[in-house]
Structures are given as structure tokens and as C-alpha cells.
Specification:
Length: 375
């Protein structure tokens, strides 16, 4: 494959199956850890492993800076989603038309490769950055983000940059996520006499319609960068057979939070909404929560990132995205964070996932410049 060193590294990362173990065909990220550790060792850069789960560790590469007490973290996740339905070989990277195809190329091995080469270039040139630089390759972003939560334990840093596909735009805000179940109970009966039972599915239909009406009434609540909160029923189950009035129905919901919303407040709101209905409905505790991200545009990391992008001839204005990332967890841990990376979210998780090689090269230049500029 005729390609630059960073694209060659990206191709090697794509060859490694790192599907999150929570998904079919998944395996621990140990293969990516071994590859990255060998890369940094060859570059003369110190690495350390941080165990998150048995057989699953974050890898942290460290380059000392002029200010030992001040740290800048660059973070990208190693795991990917599954490969079911892909129309290209997922682990056979193909360079075609200026794009690198394969699972993880966009989300987020392109960003990881660029961060690796940015750090290695500083070491190779003998340049000491203003801050201590960490490049952290994290596990489990695609399922329950336990990698970044472990990374945040006791972490002190002036700022963080997270690689997700943003088309090399500066993201300072993103939506959070709340997923939970609502269960309706009824009374089973013969379907020829439905009036003698209580239909849990019909009651759940009332619940869902009420929640949809409620989210529409929130149309006036909007964030300037990420827009409105959303609610989506994603999975519904109920009943045992067609000739029995169902006594059970369960729905799983996905609610996207905008900056300023808190999980507990949103859950309390829905408990009140459902409580006003004359149905036997119960809300279960959240299955997953992820806080929104909102980093002020005037913060040092956002301002410096914007300046670097503009000097590169790219758009340096701050924007928001509807998807989540590890940045929100770093931010909640008190570390001002932004998201910048190669690729488009439209290609992430896709059946022909790819990343524009030009953007990977731009990401390398951006990360390296930011390492040198942030003080």
C-alpha cells in the first residue's frame, strides 16, 4: 500500500479486530494496545497501561513538557462497533480514491493514528512542548465508556482533546444520553373477552403517545450549538400470544439531553408525566447515562484549537454535535475538553466505513501544532 506513514499506521490499526466485546464477534482491545505500545517504544516514548477490566487496559503514552505540573491529554478510543452488514472486508484496509476503507478507519482509528504520529514527531525532533503531553488510547467507548472513566480517576490536566469524526471542525458542545425502560402491567384475559382484562400494550401506547406529545412541547427549549432535546422509543416487547390479552409490555427509550439538562431532573420529569396517567406504569433505573458537553468558546483549549485550525486554513468556529464522546466525561471530571478529528459521523458505523486520508494528515498537523501551542 503506497501511503504516508500515518496512513500506513492507520491501515495496520484497521487490520486489528477490536470490536467491543459487548457486540457479536467482539474481542478485548489488547491487539491495539500491543501495536500502539510497540509504536511508542520504537519512538522512545514512555508508555504505561491502566487496567480497566480483565484483559482490557487503556494505554497512555507520555512526553514530558517544560511545565511538569501542567498536562494536556489527547484521547481516542480503540474499540469499534460490530461488522454485521458491512459490504466491504472490515479488517482488510483498502486505499482507494484518497480514502482508507475498513471498520474503525473513521471511528476513531484515524484520529488515534494522527495523535500517535504527532507525539512521535515531537520526540523525533527533540522538541519539548510547553505541557506534559499524554496520548491516551482508551477501551470501551462504544458500549459503556468504562475506559475514559478509569482514565479520569485522579487525573489532573489543564485540558483534553478527543478524537471523534468531526470533519476537522472544533466541537465544544454535544448532547448527552439517557436510556431507560418503562414497564406497563395489565391483567391477562381471553382475547374474545378483552373487557375482562387490562391490556398492557394499549396502556403502553398511551404512555408513548404522551411522551411524544411532551417532547413536542419542549420545542422551544434549544441550545444554540446542538439544538433541541429528542426522545426516541427504540425497543418494545409485550404479550405472549395473539389470543391472550397481554399483561406485560416494556419499552426502551433513548433521550438526548442538551447542555444544562441533568439526568436526575429529566427522570423526575418523566416520572411526573407518567404519574398523571391512569395506567399501571413503572419507570426502571437508567440503563445508561451520558452527560452533555459544553466547553466555553473562550476557554484556553477552545481558543487555541480555533487559532490553530484557522492558521491551517480550516474553519475554526465552534460547533456542536448530537452524538456523545469521551469528552463529556473528561469535562465532568473538571478537564476542559474539545472534540476534533478526521472523518464524518455519517461514515462512522457504516457498512462501507472510510476516512478521507487528507483529513487524517490534517489531524496530524493540527494535533502536533496544538501540542506545541497550548500553554
Amino acid at each position: 500500500m503506497s501511503a504516508s506513514p500515518v496512513i500506513q499506521t492507520l491501515a495496520e490499526l484497521v487490520r486489528i479486530n477490536s470490536i467491543n466485546p459487548a457486540f457479536p464477534g467482539g474481542t478485548p482491545e489488547a491487539g491495539v494496545v500491543a501495536f500502539c505500545r510497540a509504536f511508542f517504544t520504537a519512538a522512545g516514548i514512555e508508555t504505561r497501561e491502566q487496567e480497566v477490566l480483565p484483559g482490557r487496559s487503556n494505554l497512555i503514552a507520555v512526553l514530558p513538557g517544560r511545565q511538569p505540573g501542567r498536562r494536556l491529554v489527547f484521547e481516542a478510543h480503540m474499540d469499534t462497533v460490530g461488522v454485521s452488514g458491512m459490504t466491504i472486508p472490515p479488517f482488510q484496509p483498502e486505499l482507494r480514491g484518497g480514502r482508507l476503507f475498513g471498520r474503525g478507519a473513521c471511528d476513531t482509528k484515524g484520529g488515534l493514528a494522527a495523535m500517535m504520529h504527532a507525539l512521535a514527531s515531537l520526540k523525533r525532533s527533540g522538541t519539548t512542548p510547553p505541557c506534559e503531553i499524554w496520548v491516551a488510547a482508551a477501551v470501551d467507548e462504544e458500549f459503556s465508556y468504562r475506559g475514559v472513566l478509569k482514565l479520569c480517576e485522579g487525573l489532573e490536566a489543564a485540558a483534553a482533546v478527543v478524537a471523534e469524526p468531526t470533519l476537522m471542525r472544533l466541537v465544544t458542545a454535544s448532547k448527552g444520553c439517557l436510556r431507560w425502560r418503562i414497564v406497563c402491567r395489565g391483567v391477562a384475559a381471553h382475547s374474545s373477552k378483552p373487557e375482562t382484562g387490562v391490556n398492557a400494550i394499549c396502556n403502553m401506547a398511551r404512555v408513548i403517545l404522551t411522551l411524544q406529545d411532551d417532547i413536542q412541547r419542549m420545542a422551544g427549549r434549544s441550545h444554540p450549538l446542538v439544538g433541541k432535546p429528542t426522545l426516541s422509543p427504540g425497543v418494545i416487547t409485550g404479550g405472549t400470544q395473539v389470543n391472550i390479552v397481554p399483561d406485560y409490555c416494556c419499552v426502551e427509550l433513548d433521550r438526548r439531553l442538551i447542555p444544562g439538562e441533568e439526568v436526575d431532573d429529566v427522570m423526575a420529569h418523566y416520572a411526573a408525566v407518567i404519574g398523571r396517567l391512569d395506567v399501571a406504569a413503572r419507570m426502571e433505573p437508567p440503563m445508561l447515562t451520558d452527560v452533555p458537553l459544553e466547553t466555553p468558546a473562550h476557554s484556553p483549549i477552545a481558543r487555541t484549537a480555533s487559532e490553530v485550525l484557522e492558521e491551517m486554513g480550516l474553519d475554526g468556529s465552534a460547533c456542536g454535535v448530537p452524538f456523545g464522546s469521551d469528552a463529556s466525561k473528561l469535562s465532568r471530571a473538571g478537564i476542559p475538553s474539545v472534540v476534533v478529528g478526521p472523518g464524518s459521523i455519517d461514515q462512522a458505523h457504516g457498512d462501507t466505513e472510510y476516512v478521507e486520508c487528507e483529513q487524517v494528515e490534517q489531524a496530524l498537523e493540527f494535533y502536533r501544532s496544538l501540542m506545541l501551542r497550548f500553554e
